[in-house]
Each structure stands twice: as structure tokens, then as C-alpha cells.
């Protein structure tokens, strides 16, 4: 039994604090797990229930920004309504007097898929053994299950990438970050999302932003997975944009290389819209990728939505069949 479990179990007989703590005062032992451009993820212990949770809140400098506040609340509420084994349970949404809006989730031990792929690229023996081709196919299929469930409820994720696929230490696969999700029938921020990636300041940081797997480091990554219709700023996107992004993730998971990465974001966008990329087996012959995998991947990343899989369930079925074939 680890120390974290011992600490939590030691407090199971405690009475409920009186008065019950408000906002983030409810959580003790806070420590940072990850930090992004707009938000920070912390771990802490719920002093009332006695369980460890993950807490997501905005960075101090933008916690009063109306757009970022709305985006965080959207992520929390969409995630809370998508109750599926491959999404993370949301426990609470709150507005702390000092630290602003936040939400708490189940804390899952493990790492995101991009970190796992980086270790494979570095020929880490433990990663290579833990994530053979069959396992990587299963992980992508599990993430796609969350997308299929979301699509059935009118939600498009729009930011599917390896960093948003969490692989737990006990086999769990969780699709995270629904902050830019589109809900059918509601106004969305597609144009805002598109403009963010076309800002001039991005061009000054392309070497940092578009690092390869073999180069290591962190990357925002989103431009690498956007569908052609997202790059064009189309408002009328549907579930096939997630199918394209999932196809790019599948390609990268197999070839351990991104298919559309250019030297700049503009070049990457041009590749997404126009470049014919080689199939995974040709891109990375050193990984001995079966030829039958190529057809599934290339159909998922077809430029025209009409040429792709028309539903996530179809893509999942073919990925599952591949997983059985390569076992």
C-alpha cells in the first residue's frame, strides 16, 4: 500500500468539518501535476470525502479573462455530462473566492500517450515492451470509443491529440480536454481557435511548437492534428473532423512520426490541406508495420470528409480488427 492510500484511509473516521469548507479550502495537500498555456492541474485530497482528486483551474494572470473562464466551464460541464469509461468523472465545479473557477476530477496515475510514444522513439526498452503495436492500436481504439459516445450526444472534441489521451497504470485510457468541444446547435469558437494558431507570434516559435517525437520536449501539438476543414476555418464541421484527428493520432502511434509536420505552422497547414503523405509502413519501415494497417489509416486522414470513415464506430471496428490481426 502506498503512502497516499495510507494517508487517505487514516482519515476515513473523521467527522465532516463544521462548517464545511468552501471552494478550494475543501482540498488539502495541493501540489502541481502539470501546467499549460492557460491552466494548471493540481492534485489534492478532498477533506470531506477523503479521496485524492485532480483540480484544474486557470493560471492567476488570466483567471478573470471571460473567454478562458467560459472555456474552462465548458470543458468541465461537457466532461461531466459525458459519462463513459473512457472519459474522466467530474466531481465538482466551483468558483473560489481567491482562485476563480475550477473543477475537480478523478485522479488517474499514468502518462499521456505522447510521453509513451516519446519513450518508444528513444528506444526505451520498458516502453517498447509495454506498448507493442497491438497495444497502441487498442489505446487509439479506446480513445475513439469516447469520441463515438460524444458524437452520439452531439459533441465534437476538435482537439484530439496524443497529449489528450491519458494511459493509466492499470490499463485505463481516458480522453481529456473538452475545452474547445463543439456542441451541435450552439455557437462555438471555431474561428477563435483557428485564429489562435494563425497568430504571427506563433511563427517565431515554430521550432519549439513543432518538435518531433525524436526531438523530445513539449509541444502544443494542436496544429499537427487539425483537419483540413478546421485549417480552413469552416464552421460546419462534424464528427468527421474528429475522425481525421484520430487518424493522425493512429498514424503517429504506429509510425512514431507525425504525418503532416512542416518546418513552420503555415507549412504544416499546407501539408494538411494538400500534401500526399506516405502510409505508415513506408514512413517508418524500421517498425515493421503490417501493410494492412495502411488502408485504415489513410482512409481516416483523407482530405475530403466524404472520403473518410463516416462514423467513429466504423473506424473503431477496423482498428479492433487490425489489433486482432497483428496479435
TrEMBL record:
Composition bias type Basic and acidic residues, residue spans: 197-206
UniProt domain Protein kinase: residue ranges: 27-322
PROSITE patterns linked to this entry: PROTEIN_KINASE_DOM
Keyword terms, alphabetized: ATP-binding, Kinase, Nucleotide-binding, Transferase
Coiled-coil boundaries: none
EC number assigned by the record: 2.7.-.-
Broad class of enzyme this protein falls into: transferase
Top-level taxonomic group: Bacteria
UniProt-annotated stretches for the region Disordered: 197-223
GO MF annotation list: ATP binding; protein serine/threonine kinase activity
Protein name: Serine/threonine-protein kinase
UniProt source species: Rhodopirellula europaea 6C
Organismal lineage: Bacteria, Pseudomonadati, Planctomycetota, Planctomycetia, Pirellulales
Amino acid at each position: 500500500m502506498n503512502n497516499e492510500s495510507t494517508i487517505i484511509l487514516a482519515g476515513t473516521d473523521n467527522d465532516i468539518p463544521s462548517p464545511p469548507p468552501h471552494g478550494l479550502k475543501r482540498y488539502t495537500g495541493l501540489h502541481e501535476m502539470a501546467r499549460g498555456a492557460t491552466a494548471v492541474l493540481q492534485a489534492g485530497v478532498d477533506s470531506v470525502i477523503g479521496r485524492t482528486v485532480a483540480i484544474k483551474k486557470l493560471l492567476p494572470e488570466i483567471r478573470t479573462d471571460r473567454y478562458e473562464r467560459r472555456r474552462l466551464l465548458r470543458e468541465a460541464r461537457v466532461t461531466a455530462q459525458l459519462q463513459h469509461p473512457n472519459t474522466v468523472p467530474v466531481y465538482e465545479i466551483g468558483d473560489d473566492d481567491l482562485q476563480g473557477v475550477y473543477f475537480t476530477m478523478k485522479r488517474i496515475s499514468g502518462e499521456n500517450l505522447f510521453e509513451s510514444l516519446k519513450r518508444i522513439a528513444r528506444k526505451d526498452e520498458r516502453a517498447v515492451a509495454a506498448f507493442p503495436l497491438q497495444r497502441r492500436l487498442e489505446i487509439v481504439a479506446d480513445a475513439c470509443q469516447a469520441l463515438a459516445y460524444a458524437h452520439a450526444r452531439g459533441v465534437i472534441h476538435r482537439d484530439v491529440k496524443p497529449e489528450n489521451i491519458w494511459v493509466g497504470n492499470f490499463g485505463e485510457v481516458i480522453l481529456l480536454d473538452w475545452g474547445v468541444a463543439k456542441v451541435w446547435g450552439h455557437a462555438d469558437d471555431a474561428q477563435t481557435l483557428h485564429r489562435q494558431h494563425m497568430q504571427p507570434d506563433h511563427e517565431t516559435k515554430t521550432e519549439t511548437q513543432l518538435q518531433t517525437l525524436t526531438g523530445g520536449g513539449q509541444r502544443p501539438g494542436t496544429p499537427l492534428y487539425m483537419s483540413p476543414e478546421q485549417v480552413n476555418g469552416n464552421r460546419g464541421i462534424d464528427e468527421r473532423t474528429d475522425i481525421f484527428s484520430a487518424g493522425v493520432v493512429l498514424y503517429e502511434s504506429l509510425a512514431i512520426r507525425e504525418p503532416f509536420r512542416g518546418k513552420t505552422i503555415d507549412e504544416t497547414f499546407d501539408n494538411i490541406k494538400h500534401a500526399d503523405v506516405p502510409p505508415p509502413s513506408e514512413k517508418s519501415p524500421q517498425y515493421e508495420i503490417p501493410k494492412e494497417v495502411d488502408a485504415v489509416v489513410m482512409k481516416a486522414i483523407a482530405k475530403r470528409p466524404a472520403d473518410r470513415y463516416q462514423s467513429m464506430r466504423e473506424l473503431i471496428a477496423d482498428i479492433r480488427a487490425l489489433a486482432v490481426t497483428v496479435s
